[in-house]
Amino acid sequence: MTERFTVVYRAYDRFNLLLYVGITGNFVVRLSSHAEGSGSEWVGYVDWIEIKRYATRAEALAAEATAILDEDPAFNIRGRPREQSEQAFRDWLHRHSALTGHNPPGAGWWQDTEEVIGGPRECEAAA
Q1: In which band, very low, low, confident or very high, does the pLDDT at 72 lie, cut at 50, 70 and 90?
Q2: Rounded distance, CA 28 to CA 30, Å?
Q3: Where residue 29 sits, what CATH number does that domain have?
């Protein structure tokens, strides 16, 4: 029988800046969905990913929620106040620009987001 567990993953760019924190029971499938879907503009900046296994989904959900609030990943929108999400993205954009000398392609994606009823904005792919 296959062992079941849930992971929390942290995606970092080439400057070791935290891009995104997520949770999944199937990392390969989840990463593929990020690569193919809208709302995952951060995927193109990923240099490496840290994965931590948890025995239960409840433990992983708690760890993910804490990481999103405390570690300020640049591209997470859900799980924290909208203002904190926007500031985390601006901070990443500023640091990335300072390290490379230019804004990353698609840096205006945040302005192309839509309001979700009852929660923070959900990303749509930048045009």
Answers
A1: very high
A2: 6
A3: 3.40.1440.10
Please state, as a whole number, how many other Cβ atoms lie within 10 Å of the Cβ of residue 63: 17
How many Å apart are CA 71 and CA 111, to the nearest integer?
23
Query: Whose CA is closest to 43, among 27, 28, 32?
Result: 32
Has residue 112 been placed in a domain? yes
Total of domains in the chain: 1
Residue 109 falls inside a structural domain: yes
What's residue 39's pLDDT?
A: 64
For the stretch 4-41, pLDDT in tens is: 789 999 999 999 999 999 999 877 778 777 777 766 78
Euclidean distance between CA atoms 74 and 91, whole angstroms: 8
Residue 104 structural domain: 6-122
Strands of the chain (E only): list them.
Answer: 6-12, 18-24, 48-54, 114-116, 119-122
